[in-house]
């Protein structure tokens, strides 16, 4: 759940208001037992921990200083291009 909260905090820091629709799946209501992250661009390992984030070509605008890298100890891939 810490990963979900970290992603939501980062989402609120993004400048592109179109992300509301692009990242509309990013809500706590979309975190379930069987699929912790049914969120656009978020992929989990078998243990339900975020192991990759791929948000390419959706026009994100913002900074990474609000992205809590330490909240994602299992992440091996990050693509924001």
Automatic annotation (TrEMBL):
The family database entries (Gene3D superfamilies) matched by this protein are listed as: Ribonuclease Inhibitor
Stretches assigned to coiled coil: none
* Key words of the record: Leucine-rich repeat, Repeat, Signal
Q: Which InterPro entries does the record associate with it?
A: DNA_repair-toleration, LRR_dom_sf, LRR_N_plant-typ
Q: Which residues form the Leucine-rich repeat-containing N-terminal plant-type domain?
A: 3-45
The name under which this protein is listed is: Leucine-rich repeat-containing N-terminal plant-type domain-containing protein
